[in-house]
Amino acid sequence: MDRFARGPFHVGYERRVDLEALRRKRVAKAHAERKKAGLDALLVWKDENNRYLTDLRPQLIAGKTTALNGALLIEGHDPILFCSGGERDRVDRTMPWIKEAHTIPIIEEKALVEGLVRDILGPVLKKYGLTDAKIGLDEANMVFLKALEKYFPRLKIEDGDTPMQLARMIKLPEEIVMLEEATAIADAVCASATAAVADGVRECEVAGEAMRTLFRLGGEYAHVMTPFVASGEHMAPPHRICSDKLIRNGDLVFIDIGAAWNGYFGDMARTVLCGDKASEDQKRVFTAVYDALKAGIAEMRPGRTNKDSADAFKRAASKYGLGDRFLSLFIGHGVGIGANEPPYVGETLPGAPVYEFQPGMVFAIEPLIWVEGIRGGGGVRLEEMVLVTEDGPHVMSRAPFDERLLLSA
Questions:
Q1: CATH entry 3.40.1620.10 includes domain 19-168
Q2: C-alpha dihedral sign at 160, 161, 162, 168
Q3: Which of 22, 143, 257, 399 is buried most deeply by CB count within 10 Å?
Q4: For 170-405, CATH number?
Q5: Is the pTM of this model over 0.90?
Q6: Cis peptide before 342 (omega within 30 of 0)
Q7: What are the tens digits of pLDDT across the range 285-325?
């Protein structure tokens, strides 16, 4: 398999990804997990699950995720799409693999939601003999659940998100190609942002240059809805937005924007210096994060666990007296058709499971250490896209590190 991005276009001079075959394979994986869970059907509303099953690339509205489009997966049938009226005409004309589609309202207003369940979803459930079935649901609001209970009291609602997570966890070879392409765009986005860093430029201007590159290269959206550009003291503690703050000489500047392409996410990030000279305190924090990143990634191979990796991060940072200064968040997360998905590395909250690394898992590894009171900022995060292979970790991201910030430099 390629370990680089060939290009995102369909071309006649070499074979690239067969998207029809990829779609069929993804649906087959979802069916396999549905059966393991003992479910008669899966009803999904999360953007990433819908994309995984149908390849619908919809218009996304802030705050309305899980309220716009859905899909029903039933044995022996192609996924059935439930989509916004704004998508329907395009779906009918450009997505021939969708054999059955239904127009739905935004799943929010009670009267419209009841109409959806009673008059749109209801007939579909009856048509396929699912009115008293065991259906896995990934996510839904209370109004929708209450309407299901009202009109279909014999329906058994179970966890449908875990089967979808399991289906998506080990990436198919074609998905890895998509992730390589998304990461190549993410690298370019980061390069544009880094080039824009200068004394007297605002954080939001850096984000603007990055987003221009994202869309110029055909990216769909950033890794997060709120592009993360934080400079100087904004990284201690981290302000996970971009603001109107002026970047100044001597500031550390963190850039975390990433890119989605063809439904898959590239999530990488860098911290760079504005100016020519960093303080020794800034170098200590940066070097601790850099060494921790390398140590944690080295553990990401079959036979090792997410705990082994997390422990390696802490050991490496502790050599600089910073093992207890990590951001109170996981250190890494799965990434694929979901921007952020299980499994996690370094999650410390109750219930966090231990996973063994398996070939085909893809992670965004992002240690962040911050120390308050350092002039120009004492917060650093470095992030890499990492594929677990039989031979160990393969780092997909290629953006350079600011070597001026290493203690040895």
A1: no
A2: positive
A3: 257
A4: 3.90.230.10
A5: yes
A6: no
A7: 999 999 999 999 999 999 999 999 999 999 999 999 999 98
